[in-house]
From TrEMBL:
Compartment(s): Membrane
Receptor ligand binding region domain boundaries: 40-163
Keyword annotations of the record: Membrane, Signal, Transmembrane, Transmembrane helix
Protein name according to UniProt: GRIA4 isoform 10
InterPro entries: ANF_lig-bd_rcpt, Peripla_BP_I
Length: 211
């Protein structure tokens, strides 16, 4: 959480040049948080507090005014309504988290309205110039590890949507290393619902899933 907090402070401080022209004394900053993200919410509030109470006026020449909404990602209307509410308040950027149900909605709105989304969520496929990732992608490291040790079979444990996103990265055919010519068999185990899924990925990148 400390690392995320430092990154947030640096990003907020980096808004100085642009913010001084439009907001000489305060900058509206949005926050969209989903369920079970208490650590990220605490880091966000702490970063706001540290910025606004900084004794160095050159580093913090303006105050950040947070506008926080809690969203239920299963309800697409609620996600859209929360984002529009943030936009109507004139936020300069939004610190938020997403899961597999809300990622496309949030990134699409940010691209269309040119609002930066600062997120500690795991990166997804594709890039957007208005999404600032605080967390590096694990896709390349995971695939390189499998290729280096020539693992044909492995088990991946996860209990959240974030874990599911990481576990499915090898399934994308454009991510497969060119040197991989063998089949992969890996088991996905979701301990939160006690579910086991076996996946077989062959050299032709044809995917077979067995529940």
């Amino acid at each position: 959480m400390r690392i995320i907090c430092r990154q947030i402070v640096l990003l907020f401080s980096g808004f100085w040049g642009l913010a001084m022209g439009a907001f000489p004394s305060s900058v509206q900053i949005g926050g969209l948080f989903i369920r079970n993200t208490d650590q990220e919410y605490t880091a966000f509030r702490l970063a706001i507090f540290l910025h606004n109470t900084s004794p160095n006026a050159s580093e913090a020449p303006f105050n950040l005014v947070p506008h926080v909404d809690n969203i239920e990602t299963a309800n697409s209307f609620a996600v859209t309504n929360a984002f529009c509410s943030q936009y109507s308040r004139g936020v300069f950027a939004i610190f938020g988290l997403y899961d597999k149900r809300s990622v496309h909605t949030l990134t699409s709105f940010c691209s269309a309205l040119h609002i930066s989304l600062i997120t500690p969520s795991f990166p997804t496929e594709g890039e957007s110039q208005f999404v600032l990732q605080l967390r590096p992608s694990l896709r390349g490291a995971l695939l390189s590890l499998l290729d280096h040790y020539e693992w044909n079979c492995f088990v991946f444990l996860y209990d959240t949507d974030r874990g599911l996103v990481i576990s499915t990265t090898p399934l994308a055919s454009n991510c497969m290393p060119s040197s991989v010519v063998h089949s992969w068999l890996y088991v996905l185990y979701n301990k939160s619902i006690n579910s086991i899924t076996a996946c077989l990925l062959g050299p032709s990148t044809e995917l077979n899933v067995f529940n």
